[in-house]
Amino acid sequence: MIRFDHVTKVYDAPQHPALSDIDLEVDRGDFAFLVGASGSGKSTFIRLVLREERPSSGSVHVAGTNVDKLPSWKVPLLRRNIGVVFQDFRLLPNKTVFANVAFAMQVIGRSRAMIRETVPQVLETVGLKEKGGRMPHELSGGEQQRVAIARAVVNRPAILLADEPTGNLDPETGRGIMEILDRINQNGTTVVMATHDDEIVNRMRRRVIELDHGKVVRDERGGEYHAVGDQLVLSAGNQAIAPFDSEEDEL
Ligand SMILES: Nc1ncnc2c1ncn2[C@@H]1O[C@H](COP(=O)(O)OP(=O)(O)OP(=O)(O)O)[C@@H](O)[C@H]1O
User: Fold this and answer.
1) pLDDT at position 247, please?
2) If you measure from the C-alpha of residue 48 to the centroid of ligand 1, how many angstroms do you get, rounded to a whole number?
3) Is 42 in the pocket of ligand 1 (CB under 6 A)?
4) Quick one: which atom of ligand 1 is closest to the CA of 214?
5) Are residues 118 and 143 in the same domain?
């Protein structure tokens, strides 16, 4: 579903590369944590998938398409297939919860009837059925993140990218967010989540890809890690990653 083929990304030479010779695949339906200290390259990975950045060398494939080769008019089509959630929620402050989620459908031309039907369903799946009329500032941080998740998945993307989605939340609220991401993954969406949060990684026991100074230093299924300050030490996982599978899907 996502394939990095010897990807290197250098922002400003002669700085060390933000990502260096990354060669990995995230299969359809996978749940993968991207872990690593600040500056290790997690957000760069996510930006490359979205084609917000382009590789300095190598290629990034999403659903079988080399995203670097996409003409710019097709980039919105790529992004329609990818939901994104950030640490700071990024809701539209002057719109209600319902309108924030509806907006994601409006921009791709969905009908009012479809929006009226779909938005309440999605709000229900994130536990906000009763809060469609609230404004973002009337919600807790955890609730705001649920709205952001609802907005990210309302168009049923194949992939959900989450960049530190629990970073601004207390542990209990973060666990609630993880339950929702887990459910979304169980329904078939491929999830890639960048995080520093060792408690969450150790509880979920999913694939863990560790970056260190832009290099993959560990890639394990059922992995865990223990953060020591900004130093992350991964312990052994229990399963090897399956070899690259060359499935090519139409975008
Ligand atoms: N737009 C940019 N221009 C120049 N350098 C950048 C840019 N974005 C990131 N970098 C550099 O690339 C490296 C990787 O940054 P990146 O944001 O991908 O790390 P990260 O693991 O997501 O960090 P954090 O956990 O702090 O968000 C860092 O050295 C950073 O300073």
Assistant:
1) 41
2) 12
3) yes
4) 14
5) yes
Mind listing the pLDDT tens digit for each residue in 87-134?
A: 999 999 999 999 999 999 999 999 999 999 999 999 999 999 999 999
- If you search the block for the tokens 């399956």, which residue do you land on? 242
Ligand 1 atom nearest to CA at 211:
21
Residue written as token pair 């479809």? 114
Task: Please give the model's pTM, rounded to 2 decimal places.
Answer: 0.89
Kindly calculate the radius of gyration of the chain based on its CA atoms and give it in whole angstroms. Answer: 18
Please check whether residue 115 lies inside any domain of the structure: yes
- Domain hosting 204: range is 24-54+159-239
Tally of domains within the chain: 2
- Mutate which of 16, 40, 166, 213 for ligand 1? The one with the most ligand atoms within 8 Å of its CB, which is 40
In b/e form, how buried is each residue of 122-149, taking b as 16+ CB within 10 angstroms?
Answer: bbebbebeebbebbbeebebbbbbbbbb
Q: Which two tokens stand for residue 103?
A: 């907006």
Q: Is the CB of 245 under 6 A from ligand 1?
A: no
The residue whose CB lies within 8 Å of the most ligand 1 atoms, and thus the one to mutate among 8, 11, 84, 166, is 11
Q: What is the pLDDT of residue 118?
A: 97
Residue type, 218: R
pLDDT at 240: 37
**Distance from Cα 251 to the centre of ligand 1, integer Å:** 28
ipTM for the predicted complex? 0.96
